[in-house]
Amino acid sequence: MFGLIPKDEKFFIMFKEMTSNIIEGAELLKDMLDSFSDPATSQRRIKDVEHKGDSLTHDIIRKLNKSFVTPFDREDIYALSSALDDILDLIDASAQRVVMYNVEKPTPEAKELAFLILKSCQTIDKTVALLGGKLEPISEYCVEVNALENEADRVCREAISRLFDEEKDPIQLIKWKEIYETLERATDKCEDAANILESVVVKNA
Amino acid sequence: MFGLIPKDEKFFIMFKEMTSNIIEGAELLKDMLDSFSDPATSQRRIKDVEHKGDSLTHDIIRKLNKSFVTPFDREDIYALSSALDDILDLIDASAQRVVMYNVEKPTPEAKELAFLILKSCQTIDKTVALLGGKLEPISEYCVEVNALENEADRVCREAISRLFDEEKDPIQLIKWKEIYETLERATDKCEDAANILESVVVKNA
Amino acid sequence: MFGLIPKDEKFFIMFKEMTSNIIEGAELLKDMLDSFSDPATSQRRIKDVEHKGDSLTHDIIRKLNKSFVTPFDREDIYALSSALDDILDLIDASAQRVVMYNVEKPTPEAKELAFLILKSCQTIDKTVALLGGKLEPISEYCVEVNALENEADRVCREAISRLFDEEKDPIQLIKWKEIYETLERATDKCEDAANILESVVVKNA
């Protein structure tokens, strides 16, 4: 069983650029919450990464609309680029909320979610890299992204549960609930991307 | 006019398994809110039903990806299985929030929404059963699901309106607003499923 | 380069009816917030416009399901009619919240968002009108809708930021946060519609 896409295939290169860019965004978010030395600067750098992601997505869609032959189903290329774009949008939305809500100190759960987002993005990047070679390990990576999403879901649920138990200030509660939910939605979008990648493998097996 | 799918057709059986499983989830949710004797146990049972639903959805998608011929349009099979999966996710999310937010006593509106969810799921189950036979009554059932969604929308809006009028504790307000909205979104997903089913009928009329 | 669709083409006329109806809804919303003389009546009129939009969408989907030949890709017709329907749903949802939450006085940011929604809807209407003629200016209009969405995003973010700085009553904060977010989502849906329209142009260039 050989790869779907020759290594020089343009779609493959474009998807790999997108996942590298997503990793950069996820690393910035994790560093932002871990060090918390200059969140506003981190947020602006994430916004730049997100703009770059928009333009990469736009290039893929343009190329897709102009291509008669594609390395895998058109609707999967479209869905994958949308899901990858959404991941970065949610990383950016998370960072924005941290700054906009004047968070004083990130919680352990927020840091853990940022860690899980980075792990998911790295796994998706490894999966996309395989589109140019052996497809077999892709399913395994997809299972890993699913497990990371389940873990993020658990962390988010427990964080919100603790929030309702401990936080007496409703405005603080609103802020943190939304930060946790936005972080968790980034891992949902990683799972969406993994599901699309798994479909591509099954169809081409 | 005969059915689209012979009765022994695998996709038909799989969809029927899914809707039966959804009904089980909807019944558990309704019982949970009506009796409210042991919500934590009800929630765990709903979670089991939701896991079974995930695995049924996964089976349909796998079969779809491996099938060259399908009883109706591939994208409709995909969209229908996603919509059915979403219904169960929202039933589970509703139950989770009731437990996580330590609800003391379910409101009449929450019980009514659970009743409307169950009715919608039963109607979708009857519709899916017809894919193996006469298609004509399907449109009627779809109209019924739409009416149930409109009713759920009205109940939800009035419940939230009452909440803003009467509930002075903002944290309680946040909890109940989200419970009502999550319940209502389950009926939205029933409507999505009904719309897909109606398309299938029109295309094959 | 000629138009995709002859001027008498039914799909074109139906889409134009939808965008005219959307403009009516957007104008009612803007007037509602600007004058604020009788918000309940404005809201009921917007609801009527939204019902008309539902029925126009339903007609397009029915026609689509029964047509063998379509002026552009079936999935784009489906996606465009859904996006247009969503715009009107969110205009209606915004108006509903203003009434349901007993808003005393609209804020400048809410008025500005309603203005940006109307501008976006007018631009989409101009774009749809071009489907029957020269396609070249469509891309330009799509860029304009994107710019309006960015502007709405900025206004919404600043409004919410100000809300968290100034509003000490958490229940008021919940209400206004949701009104701003609902208004902003209407411009997101305008952007979705513009992106679909741009795809149609690229595919047919």
Automatic annotation (TrEMBL), chains A, B, C:
> Record's InterPro entries?
PhoU-like_sf, Put_Phosphate_transp_reg, UPF0111_domain
Pfam short name (any one): PhoU_div
Q: Which family does it belong to?
A: Belongs to the UPF0111 family.
Name of the molecule in the record: Phosphate transport regulator
Organism of origin:
Geotalea daltonii (strain DSM 22248 / JCM 15807 / FRC-32)
